[in-house]
């Protein structure tokens, strides 16, 4: 895979994920036995909450009672963590924001906590969601009735890690593209909403 990347080898290092991150599997189902749909408690992020833009859709989150926070403490999230789906829609991921600090995640996810002195969370999220990397990641899943990823496999997964200044260049460039995508998406939505009214006006001769 190294030949697919443009950066000079002397500037870039292949790392195992365990060299630059901590990987923690989600809590067992028994620890989430009080999960509910009510408005109170601490949110628990699950794969259906992941968006295509690598964020978390917070509209339908399930929760656990605050009284259970202590026994789930090791699964608490903080800004810069990355959640990766390990069962079902393999490879989907979400980058955790400051707003989601202290929330938990489901047993269907793996938490990746980057060492930010080595790798930027935004860069790692972009790397892991890059189509060739996604294909490689999914190909390593354990076969079975439900293919799955595990922390042992993920710890050995190779990461192409340029120096931090170059990672920032990558992150900034992708952020600019994402901003333009959002602008174009908003314009498209307006045009879709406008189309029926234009039809009505034209057919009525207004």
What's the topology here?
Layout: E1 13-16, H1 17-20, E2 21-25, E3 42-45, E4 62-64, E5 82-85, E6 93-95, E7 104-105, E8 109-114, H2 121-129, H3 131-139, H4 151-155, E9 158-161, H5 164-203
Parallel strand pairs: 3-7
Antiparallel strand pairs: 1-9, 2-8, 3-4, 5-6, 5-8
Give an overview in words:
The chain has helices at residues 17-20, 121-129, 131-139, 151-155, 164-203; strands spanning 13-16, 21-25, 42-45, 62-64, 82-85, 93-95, 104-105, 109-114, 158-161. The protein has 206 residues and is an alpha+beta fold. The chain has two domains: 2-162, Alpha-Beta Complex (Adenine-n6-DNA-methyltransferase TaqI, Chain A, domain 2); 163-206. A four-stranded antiparallel β-sheet has the order 2-8-5-6.
What's the CATH C level of the largest domain?
Answer: Alpha Beta
What would you call the structural class?
A: alpha+beta
The total count of helices amounts to 5
How many domains make up the coordinates?
2
What is the makeup of the main sheet?
4 strands, antiparallel
């Amino acid at each position: 895979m190294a030949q697919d990347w443009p950066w000079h080898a002397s500037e870039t290092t292949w790392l195992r994920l365990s060299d630059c991150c901590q990987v923690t599997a989600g809590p067992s189902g028994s620890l989430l036995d009080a999960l509910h749909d009510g408005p109170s408690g601490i949110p628990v992020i699950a794969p259906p909450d992941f968006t295509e833009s690598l964020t978390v859709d917070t509209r339908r989150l399930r929760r656990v009672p605050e009284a259970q926070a202590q026994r789930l403490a090791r699964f608490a999230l903080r800004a810069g963590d990355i959640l990766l789906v390990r069962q079902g829609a393999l490879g989907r991921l979400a980058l955790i924001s400051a707003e989601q600090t202290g929330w938990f995640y489901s047993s269907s996810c793996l938490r990746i906590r980057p060492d930010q002195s080595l790798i930027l969370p935004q860069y790692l999220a972009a790397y892991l969601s890059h189509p060739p990397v996604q294909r490689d990641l999914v190909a390593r899943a354990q076969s079975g009735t439900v293919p799955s990823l595990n922390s042992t496999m993920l710890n050995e997964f190779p990461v192409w890690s340029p120096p931090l200044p170059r990672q920032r260049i990558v992150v900034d460039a992708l952020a600019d593209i994402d901003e333009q995508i959002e602008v174009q998406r908003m314009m498209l939505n307006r045009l879709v909403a406008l189309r029926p009214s234009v039809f009505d006006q034209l057919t009525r001769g207004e």
